[in-house]
Amino acid sequence: MAVHTEALALGDAIGPAGDRLDRYAVASVVLAAAGLVGFMVLHLAFAVLSPIAVVLGVLGARRTGVTGAPGRGAATAGFLIGGVGVVVCIFLVVGMAISAMAQPAVV
């Protein structure tokens, strides 16, 4: 088993083979999960974190494809969870707009 003597930087994670996972992939999963938890507390966090998770998931998947670093699964998971978050946010905004238009005007 290889021994890693260098210090881990913020955002580094160790994969099963001892290789570091891509930082963007890890950040994508973390932000997507934080967005889901934030949805239960504050919908704004969900709306802000989900698109960021999608972008980081795409960047992480590209980087892992080019460099061969582990983390492609994490990048894909962050992209998919963030994408679901974006779709849910769109439905919420459209639903609120329709609901607001259906309300009678108060004079």
What's the quick description here?
Keywords: Membrane, Transmembrane, Transmembrane helix. The chain is mostly helical and 107 residues long.
Structure characterization notes:
- The chain is mostly helical and 107 residues long.
- It has one domain (23-102).
- 70% of the residues lie in helices and 0% in strands.
- The chain contains three helices and no strands.
- Helix 1 packs antiparallel against helix 2 (43-67) and helix 1 packs parallel to helix 3.
Query: How would you sum up the major sheet?
Result: none
Summarize the helix and strand pattern as letters. Answer: HHH
Mean pLDDT level: 80
Binned, the helix content reads: over 70%
Proportion of residues in β-strands: under 5%
Shape: elongated
Q: Report the radius of gyration as a whole number of Å.
A: 18 Å
What's the helix count?
3
Total beta strand runs: 0
Stretches with pLDDT under 50, minimum 5 residues = none
Distance N to C terminus? 75 Å
Assembly annotation? single chain
Q: Structural class, from secondary structure content?
A: mainly alpha
As for the number of domains, it is 1
